[in-house]
Amino acid sequence: MSDQALSDIINAMPTPPRYGPPLTLEQAKKVMNAAELEAQKYGWPLVIALVDSTGYLCMLYKLDHAQLGSVQIAQVKAETALRFRRPTAVFENALAQGGVGLRILATPGVASLEGGLPLMMNGEVIGAIGVSGMHSSQDALVARAGVAALE
């Protein structure tokens, strides 16, 4: 790869948002309530995890009849969205394309499934939400409802 090609790739990459102050309990309750209502609207037995900008779990709901494996997956989706400051769908899409996208499989602790989203306030990442239990696109729908509660 030429120096110019590498420079073009680097310059095309957006600067990730900064980390902000941790998600407050009040904010977490808003996000969780909105996500839970969205899941209940469809009758989906999901697990919803919230982490704050320090990377620690601050709230977790396991709705009735949610599969036990989804507890850890929801947390890893939230942690991935926080650590990389982007939706986990980015990793799912890159992996689906194959080729160099398969490198994601070698990245420790990455959830390459849609359903994890950063939580933003004033242009900064204050936490993240991870949802698991249904198809990843359904998980993402519920996560987006939680994100919308902060807007």
By DSSP, the count of extended strands is: 4
The CATH level-2 architecture is identified as: 2-Layer Sandwich
Helical segment count = 5
Kindly report the CATH topology.
Answer: Beta-Lactamase
Low-confidence stretches: none
The global form is globular
How is this structure best described in words?
The chain is of the alpha+beta class. The protein has one domain (3-148): Haem-degrading domain (Beta-Lactamase). The protein has five helices and four strands, in the order ααββααββα. It has a four-stranded antiparallel sheet with strand order 2-1-4-3. A hairpin with a 4-residue loop joins strand 1 (47-52) and strand 2 (57-62).
Summarize this structure as a short list of keywords or feature phrases.
alpha+beta, 44% helix, Beta-Lactamase, 151 residues, 5 helices, four-stranded antiparallel β-sheet
Quick structural summary:
The protein has helices spanning 3-12, 25-42, 69-84, 89-97, 136-148; strands spanning 47-52, 57-62, 116-121, 124-132.
Topology at a glance:
Blueprint: H1 3-12, H2 25-42, E1 47-52, E2 57-62, H3 69-84, H4 89-97, E3 116-121, E4 124-132, H5 136-148
Antiparallel strand pairs: 1-2, 1-4, 3-4
Helix pairs in contact: 2-5
